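Project standup — Tuesday

K.O.: blocked on the structure for the chain from last sprint. Re-posting the sequence here as requested.
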Amino acid sequence: MRRLLVSLFMVTLDIITIATAAFVAVFLRFDGNVPLKYLNYTVVSLPVLIAISVAVFYFFKLYNRIWRYASIREFLLIIGAGVSSTVIFYLLLVASGQNFALPRSVLIISMILVIGGVGASRLAVRTYSHYRTNQKNSCKVAGGQNILIVGAGDAGAIIAREILQSNRTGRKVAGFIDDDKVKQGMVMFGSKILGDRSRIKVVAEEYAIDEIIIAMPSVDGGIVRDVVNICRETGCNIKMVPSIYELIDGKITLDQLRNIDVEDLLRRDPVKLDQEIIKTYLQGKSVLVTGAGGSIGLEICRQVAKLAPKEIILLGRGENSIYEVDYELRSLYPTVKTHAVVADIKDEKRINKLFFEFRPQVVFHAAAHKHVPLMELQPVEAVQNNVFGTLTVAEAAQKHGAERFIMISTDKAVNPTSVMGASKRVAEMLVNSLGRSGDTIFAAVRFGNVLGSRGSVIPLFKRQIARGGPVTVTHPEMKRYFMTIPEASQLVLQAGALAQGGEVFVLDMGEPIKIADLATDLIKLSGNIPGEDIKIEYTGLRTGEKLFEELLTAEEGTTTTKHSKIFVANITPVDFEKMKQNVKDIRGLYSSRAIVAAFEKLVRTYKPNR
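H.V.: unblocked you, prediction finished:
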């Protein structure tokens, strides 16, 4: 009822504006000395003009908008509606065969006045709403907050507007910080840009800042780290606008703000995806994801679901994880058909039955054992899962006519020192050799550690910090390549679009990062002092580990692709039948020593660290 009354009020206001504009236009045109016949003609034609204008305004949806949130888009619509109604009115008069009794300049003047009047009425609503909000936030009340926003770009602007328009009493934007000298000293949403990041501490004291919001979703991790360190010295509560990968699906709101995490300190330029080429090979297709319950498998499922596939087959060995993935996808993407399948990739009969039943056109093979020290103790499982599981799924994909098979590999497959790394290198060789024959396109994608994935170092560090330490690091010089889960998954989809057959794609992961530096950053982010509140202990390299991971062997080198962050490793071709026979020779091996010896023959660069 309230909505109807508001709409009727706006219609009434527009009718008054249109009528007033018509008479004012006539008076302006004739300098106040309006001949009676022109005045009579204005009165007669006014109902038609009003009817047309209101109908056009309704068509332009000017009566179902919340004008206190109006932006430039809404005011452009007002201009379009004003021009359209005037043109339609004039064309109607011409089509009726009547001579237009008034000078045409009257129509133009009237149109300008209508646009101005209608725009002014909407601006008045927005101004009144803004005034009421500012009245609420004009002074700091008990429990309220003075907020400093670091970053006066699009993200900062959205956060400032959200704060101004929200009804959260006491929240006030005290100012902005931005390194862009052109912006400094200027005013945005009523708050001044108070300087660059070096002034954060001074501004925090001067303006009694309670909370700092870092609104730089796509800025380099080094800059974010510097800003975070400065903000931490102020003692203020620090919040972060999510990274660019987390913002792909939606608008930034206050509810999306979260505490700083170590992932924020590793940011790189956002991945630019060719959505059209990815859609081409996924839209309307049946997609199988093995290891769908894992971190990477789950994120691949999420990314695929956005691209309107025909169906997604969620294959995994853990019933709980597959249930959760299936539930999430059904909730978020109800139009996408999902099939939850609990199965083991080593079960050849079961896998072939699934391929026969679902006929997947695209396969993302993310199922694998990945924990280096654990697989050193149980090399048989690494062989069975990573090698023979991959072979089973890959051969089923080829046998049942899948269009593409994309395997997730690892940087540990390069010059491996572990059983896990060697098993993944053998899996790469199988996929590479299969991709050189048949109609199915086979490819592997190689990248490093994934932040936040199950069993990764960050969750371990967090648990250790929560217990009061110590944080355990194997070696002060150990370095690893890192990516976020969404970043890795999106690049896997992009690499899948680029695959022609037999490639091993390598993702650009920036510079490797010291694990000790990650531990230090995480301790600081938890509000503790490294070495004092929380100690770091160095435990020594574990079996199978090495200090530095590599993305390429010395012999491989890379070839560029159409995507700036994806390269193709120049892999030496291997005959599939010969490779398959060599692999089958290790199927019956159960001795760790025998498996290691077999891998040394298969993978020339394998140097076991046992």
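K.O.: great, moving the ticket to review. Confidence is low (pLDDT under 50) at residues 137-142. The radius of gyration is 32 Å.
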